[in-house]
Amino acid sequence: MSGVTWIDTFPGNQLWSNALLVTKGMAPYNAVAMGEIDLVCERLRPQQTKAEAWRDEWARMGAQCEKSGDAAAAAGNQMTAGNYYLRAGMYYFTAERFIYPGAEKRAMGQKAIEMQQAGLLRRYANLERVEVPFGNASLPACFMKAEGAKGPAPTVVVFDGMDNCKEMSILFNGLEFAKRGFNTLAIDGPGQGESLRLRDLYARHDYEVAGSAAFDYVSKRADVDAKKVVVMGYSFGGYYSSRVAAFERRYAAGVAFAALHWDLHAWQKEIKRKQDENPTAVAQSTFHFQWIMGCLGDADAAIEKARKFSLVDVAPQISCPFLILHGQDDRVVPLPSAHKLYDAVGSRQKHLKLFSTEETGAQHAQVDNRVIGVDYIADWIAATLNS
After folding, report:
1. Sequence-distant (≥ 6) Cβ neighbours of residue 339 within 8 angstroms
2. Quick check: helix, strand or coil at residue 246?
């Protein structure tokens, strides 16, 4: 079809194209299959005027994979079942994306988490599902142990973006980090993944509270070198990791796997204006930001709350080594935000890596080639911790 590209599968419909790109980005980790994705897309192409079609077709593919996983498990083929369950979970998670918050969304989110966990725990013997104490509650997380570690190992604490979950994080970060000799704690903080979907924990600007809880947890593990713990966040998590690095000084280094909008309040106002004209012209649904902010049904309140999510006075307080990655063609967070964050970071040891169209990785959080982004981060962490 004319105009169709890897980035724009649904030309003129950024809402669907961006959501699909997030799902495609999981292909290197066997969490999706391109043939299955292509089949769903062909079914969706003539149904773009039907909002419910997105949910129906992705859930249909999820159910197909779940059924195959059940058959494999019943036959004793647990590794095969794990692969099917991983894909079922990612397809259910994709189906859940545009369901308005309520009972149906919660049920789909729970199904996605259950399938992803069923796949992960079958496929990866070095993985644990853990709970991180957090006030009177706890934050769900996945802990992946470094391969071949003979003692306490460096550890990376990873906070998700606005549209992701710990099960995705552990795959595209944890697998590579484990091979490099790092542990990974992929955690659903407030406003993320399972914490949002099943525990009603909404986003907060003072994310150092979650960052401190994560550090407290990993530092007490015998398999963690507490002097070599790095905090990282991707997409919206680029704000979180920056905030944590500024105020939780026990972290040895920080990484923003994509910067967040420098002025989130102004950006969300512009998003709302565009949504009022054409809801499919932007990457964000009309309700998602309201939901994560705990302001569902009140766009103005969510936008007002965004004022607190600012790094203007925070970034200068970052003193640890800090890395920022960004794509030059990022259509979710425009490039100037990355430059502004870099300029404001107070650390003497800071670095900004920009990915171009020619080398790929130029899209948001390197979703068009996430492997090279994670490789760059892993190399930087190793060099920084060993310097």
Report:
1. 352
2. helix
Residue 7 has pLDDT above 90, yes or no: no
Which residues are within 8 A (CB) of 172 and not within 5 positions of it... i.e. 6 or more apart? 25, 26, 28, 29, 370, 371, 374
Q: What is the dihedral sign for C-alpha 19, 21, 22, 24?
A: positive
DSSP 79-97: HHHHHHHHHHHHHHHHHHT
Q: Phi, psi at residue 83, to the nearest 5°?
A: -65, -45
Is the pLDDT at 292 greater than 80? The verdict is: yes
For 374, the enclosing helix (H) or strand (E) is: helix 370-385
Return the pLDDT at 2: 63
Q: What is the pLDDT of residues 20-73, one digit of tens each?
A: 999 999 999 999 999 999 999 999 999 998 989 999 999 999 999 999 999 999
Pairwise CA distance, residues 53 & 8, whole Å: 18
β strands within the chain, DSSP E: 127-134, 137-144, 153-159, 183-187, 224-234, 253-257, 322-327, 350-355
Mapped onto helix, strand or coil, the DSSP state of residue 11 is: coil
Query: Side-chain half-sphere of 378: how many Cα atoms within 13 Å?
Result: 20
Q: Identity (one letter) of the amino acid at 235?
A: S
- Residue ranges of the domains in the chain? 10-123, 126-262+311-387
Tokens 């725990």 belong to 121
The pairs formed by 357-362 with CB atoms below 8 angstroms and a separation of 24 or more are 357/328, 357/329, 361/327, 362/327, 362/328, 362/329, 362/330
Alpha carbons 22 and 29: distance in angstroms, whole number: 13
**137-144 and 153-159: which strand pairing?**
unpaired
**What does the alpha-carbon distance between residue 206 and residue 74 come to, in Å, rounded to a whole number?**
46
Domain range 126-262+311-387, CATH architecture: 3-Layer(aba) Sandwich (3.40)
pLDDT over 90, % of the chain:
97
The order of strands in the sheet holding 322-327 is 127-134, 137-144, 183-187, 153-159, 224-234, 253-257, 322-327, 350-355
Backbone φ and ψ for 98, nearest 5 degrees, come out as -110, 15
Q: Evaluate if residue 212 carries a pLDDT over 60.
A: yes
Question: Of 3.40.50, 1.20.1440, 3.10.450, 1.10.8, which CATH number belongs to 10-123?
Answer: 1.20.1440
